[in-house]
User: Fold this.
Amino acid sequence: MAGLNLSRRLFRNGCATILLYLLMASVALLLAGITAFLIRNGWSVLSWEFLTQPPRDAMTRGGIYTPLIGSIQLIAVAMAFAFPVGVLTAVYLVEWARDGLFTRTLRLAVRSLAGVPSVVFGLFGLSFFVITLGFGASLLSAGLTLGCLALPVIVGASEAALTAVPKDYRDASYAMGATKWQTIYKVILPAAFPSILTGAILAVGRVAGETAPIIFTGAAFFTPRIAQSLLEPVMALPYHILVLATAGTAIDKTRPIQYGTILVLLALVLGVTFAGVLYRARLRLKKQ
Amino acid sequence: MGKTIKFQTSAMNLWYDRFQALKAIDITISERAVTAFIGPSGCGKSSFLRCLNRMNDFVPGARVEGEVFLDGRNIYDSDQDVITLRRRVGMVFQRPNPFPASIWDNVAYGPRLHGVRNRRELDEIVEKSLRGAAIWDEVKDKLRTPALALSGGQQQRLCIARAIAVEPEVLLMDEPTSALDPMATARIEELVRTLKERFTVAIVTHNMQQAARISDETAFFLDGEIIESGPTHLIFTSPRDGRTEDYITGRFG
Assistant:
């Protein structure tokens, strides 16, 4: 009886193992397939010139210098806004806010914000940043709109990171006569920082690939040069991809460029992620 | 013996919402002596310790009635500043809790909080505190290495060094050896005996032998009340209350 039971359990265990392996493999395969497809179609156009030359001849030739720099600028503006605001919001929610109707509403609002379709952010950016605040269709408007998109991701990750800081650290700090702000600034934030950074990296990934929020707010079909100030419009990789895929007439010429652009965008996001992971690993090493 | 009283409580009650954790606590804690609080789990001894530096302020629903005098002043008076109080009354916790930073940074944390910036001065405080916690010789060559790389016992002595770096008058210790092995425990106990030359020490312990070994006075807590308190040798040799005797002879707890 016991033996039969055991063999049945082992059989089930085997099935579960195989099933999980298959699922894992199919996800990996899907990812590898997409990457391989992109590389096969876009690899041929990749070159130093592709990265350092602006598009020419109605996007049928040249590179993606302007949208690449534009995307980096957009990410920088978005994060310069969303990172401090997001982290401090989380600090407020975790450390100061008492559990009440106001806090709960605030939390719910932040969570809901994460589920709002990105095109709605675009329309919000158009009416608020572009028109009401008068920033025009610009790097600033588009960057801030993307920042709004990144905000819930950063708040959520920071909240989780701050909550995960052991109570022991707080106790130790307060027991030495630290004020609340000293404790947060010198103990809790440094301890939570690696995880907060993870959230920020996720947010960059989310922001870098968005098209809808920037179409109305500052992404340009074409600009002759990279933006010299916050109030100029910019080209951006995701919008450039859309343009290449939909607006061209010489499809056979633009298609390789389109795949090449996707590859660069992918590499940009992966590059940011990788840099973040390395930095985080170094921080952890220093502490333990 | 002519002892000076450091802490004195008078009819102190502690409530957590509707639950009364401490009932009518009247006790004195002598200066530059070791006072041990013993009693079974949940008897209120740790809660009482946390009332002495107002760490219970952080517990939602916690409320203290009555008076707790430190050098004759009620620390629950509305004009008592908790920052100053906690600087005067330091604390060491059950689990060693160094910050995830270097040994030096851990010890310098407190003095920096209170405004010491000068590097040489901080170096001196760090050395003095580490010596005071009997850990200097083990760490003097690696002050810049992470504190979390130390053993549990070393971490706990580091935490003691960190606590005394702000020169408190009182050191509260909440079962400081319960997470340590016997060797590390012995070193902490030895340390506690030297600490009382400079500080008033109040220590919560589960371990009655420990209380007997290191304390001058002992208070026995049961169900939120102090059943008996007095000189340690008397509590352990001739307890007046039957419940104290039952506890120290191991009949319960």
User: Anything to note?
Assistant: Chain B has a mean pLDDT of 93.
